[in-house]
Amino acid sequence: MKVYNSMSGEKEDFVPLTMGHVSIYVCGVTVYDLCHVGHARSSVVFDVIRSYLTYKGYGVKFVKNFTDVDDKIINRSKEEGVAWDLVAKKYIDEYYVDMDRLGVARADVEPLATEHVEDMIELISGLMSGGYAYVMDGDVYFSVDSFDGYGKLSGRSLISQEAGSRVTVDERKNNPLDFALWKRSKEGEPFWESPWGPGRPGWHIECSAMSRKYLGDTFDIHGGGADLIFPHHENELAQSEAFTKKPFVKYWVHNGFITLDKEKMSKSLGNFFTIRDILGNFDPEVLRLFLISTHYRNPIDFSYQQLADTEVSIDRHYSTVLRVDTFLKSHGSKPKKDSEYEAFSVSVSSFREKFIESMDDDFNTAQAVGHIFDLVRSVNRYLDAKPSGDVAHALLTEAMKLLDEVCQVLNVFRKNPKDWYRSLMKTRKLPITEREIDSSIERRNAARKAKDWIKADEIRNSLLSCGIILEDRPGCTGWRVKV
RNA sequence: GGCGGCGUACCCAAGUGGCUAAGGGAGAGGUCUGCAAAACCUUUAUGCGCCGGUUCGAAUCCGGCCGCCGCCUCCA
After folding, report:
1. Which of residues 101-160 of A touch strand B (CB under 7 A)?
2. Is the pLDDT assigned to residue A172 strictly greater than 80?
3. Eight-class DSSP state of A31
4. Is it true that domain A304-418 has CATH number 1.20.120.640?
5. Could you tell me the pLDDT band of residue A331, with boundaries at 50, 70 and 90?
6. Beta carbon of A262 within 7 Å of strand B?
7. What pLDDT was estimated at residue A330?
8. Coil, strand, or helix at residue A53?
9. Smallest CA–C1' separation from A160: which nucleotide?
10. If you write DSSP's letter for every residue of A152-179 in order, what string do you get?
11. CATH number of this structure's domain A2-255
12. Is A286 within 7 A of strand B by CB distance?
């Protein structure tokens, strides 16, 4: 298995520190607002990575934090006149609403920064006594010059940084890149007591403290969005290694951005869609599949058109599942020699291996999804050959079992088709009920029996104008939502 | 300015040294059907930004150029 490591800039063989176990820490969100599509991507990407490692048989310990105290939360608290901790709590709740809908599983540990201030103080004290930090007017700074490896993750040298830096130089700092470990609190701001006076932790220190507490001094995978590489992860790394004198992380994994018209989606630019915005118009599965249809390190240019295309592709999948369900329920027991059996059998038996091969190559979900659609086509082709008998049943059952197995890892395509259509009816707000559809179908079938094609077509067209498409199959008429 | 990434068909997107360049969407033709729909088949890149080079062989490696983007300030 290969994993791309941001530290080396190369795909590396994945060998965890402890055989059979993988420890992962992912930087979560700062809870001051609703999550946008970029947060969704990061969450889904690491959800899949975690899930795949579990599928491979590793015991996975997955930690993802919430930053629940910082400037933005405090600002939001002032704007809304709501206590800062209630702001944080509110957006943690909202986060779970979105993530649950996207099928993102809870992490094993989801620590809050505010509940680990003691751990951070311990770390900062250690850095002070080790000569890595200094106090300035109640603030504590990490001195980047005191740590030899500073810049090794983001690939920048201290000298080159100073030249073109856009950072406003704080004259009190030894080096403009020195960053706060502890911030003296201003009037009315939340604070904790510390050896340096009342204050609150700097941003980076929480991840060093919490990852160490739950995963130890060194752990396997540290993840997050690519925008966290510098300064956040660079700083975490410096703090942690300065404190423990051990390597901090074995594999740094960073996901690419969501862009809008090629520009990074971000709060500050205001060019973002919240997850909530999208889920008002699409089933959550559409967003999830859309996000994993591109390799996790590549940028994704967000558009409603692409979501709509993804929706159609999901529909293709479910309509195939429905076809298979219908076939498996029928009792054609006459064994029939069909020409497609051999070819389909090969598709089925090689499927799992292909999936694993894709995912082993730096979690190539895009290719894995391609394999799923390959199998979908094979299934349809096989069904078109009108197979029959126990052997056909067994092979199709096997195909569906395999499909289910990999779809469980990706957590897509797991509804039953009817629920998918119901969901589409809801997101499209179709002006018709299932009962009305069924009764229309009955009336139409009566007309068809009487060969009254005009009336039959009239009924079909009227359903179509409500967004419902009919499919006449031998023995029954099915319906789908037009996508 | 420093560091990094990207450029594959009408759109999206895999592929990073060697079989016919995955897959999805869209378009065209066909099979099936009362007609449809779905499905399937054929079709849409002799070519992977441009120009050179390495190699028996490159979208894939190397060099140059053009274009786009990210990080260097909070950011998934």
Report:
1. 154-157, 160
2. no
3. S
4. yes
5. low
6. yes
7. 82
8. helix
9. B2
10. TTTT--HHHHHHH--SPP-TTSSSTT-E
11. 3.40.50.620
12. no
Cβ A211 to strand B below 7 Å:
no
Residue A160 has pLDDT above 70, yes or no: no
pLDDT digits (tens, 9 = 90+) for A183-218: 999 888 999 999 999 999 999 999 999 999 999 999
Residue A244's pLDDT is what?
A: 97
pLDDT tens track for A396-408? 999 999 999 999 9
CB of A331 under 7 A from strand B? no
Spatial separation of the C-alpha atoms in residues A331 and A76, rounded to whole Å: 63
Residues A150-159: tens digit of each pLDDT = 999 998 887 6
A51 touches strand B (CB under 7 A): no
Q: Which nucleotide is nearest to A154 (CA to C1')?
A: B3
Q: Confirm whether pTM is higher than 0.90.
A: yes
List the one residue out of A38, A17, A15, A18 whose CA is nearest residue A28: A38
Q: Does strand B come within 7 Å of the CB of A194?
A: no
Measure the CA dihedral A232/A233/A239/A244, to 10°: 160
Q: Which value, in Å, is the radius of gyration of the alpha carbons in chain A?
A: 27
Residue range A423-447, pLDDT digits in tens:
999 999 999 999 999 999 999 999 9
Contact A201, A68 (CB under 8 A): no
- Say which residue the tokens 């520190």 belong to: A17
Distance, angstroms, CA A1 to C1' B37?
Answer: 44
Q: How many angstroms separate the CA of A56 from the C1' of B76?
A: 26
- How does pLDDT run across A215-274, given as a tens digit for each residue? 999 999 999 999 999 999 999 999 999 999 999 999 999 999 999 988 999 988 889 999
Tell me which nucleotides of strand B come within 7 A of a protein CB: 1-6, 11-15, 22-26, 33-41, 68-76
Show me where the domains of chain A are located.
2-255, 304-418, 430-481
DSSP H helical ranges for A330-433: 341-360, 365-384, 390-410, 417-427
C-alpha of A185 from chain center: 35
Backbone region of residue A347 per phi and psi (left: phi > 0; alpha: psi in -120 to 50; beta: other values): alpha
Q: Which residues contact A262 (CB under 8 A, 6 or more apart)?
A: A301
pLDDT of residue A166: 47
Asked if A417 and A318 touch (Cβ cutoff 8 Å), the reply is: yes
**What is the maximum span of chain A, computed from C-alpha positions, in angstroms?**
93
Q: Is the CB of A295 under 7 A from strand B?
A: yes
Please report the pLDDT score of residue A165 as a whole number.
47
- Report if CB A478 to strand B is under 7 Å: no
**Stated in angstroms, how far is A128 CA from B68 C1'?**
45
Contact (CB, 8 A) for A477 and A445:
yes
